[in-house]
Amino acid sequence: MATPATAPVTGLAHLCLEVKDVDAELARLAALGVRPTRAPVQGKGSNRQAWLAGPEGNHVELMELADGGLQAGYWRKRAGR
Fold first, then answer.
1. In the chain, which stretches have pLDDT less than 70?
2. Which of these, 25, 57, 47, 51, lies nearest to 36 by C-alpha position?
3. pTM (2 decimals)?
4. DSSP code of 5?
């Protein structure tokens, strides 16, 4: 597996993908040989996060939105709910 890039970053720092269940997604990816670069954690806003490295070493975040978190509230508001 590639290691994360060490050069100074310009532009986007990472790609974030929303998933319904971080643990289930990590299990699915593990069956394909993909391992997280950091163990899952509960981040700011109570969201669960896990981090992976893409094939070229890009940082990829998996985020499970917390029902009461800021991001979930933002998307509900945008959807008019």
1. 1-11, 81
2. 51
3. 0.73
4. P
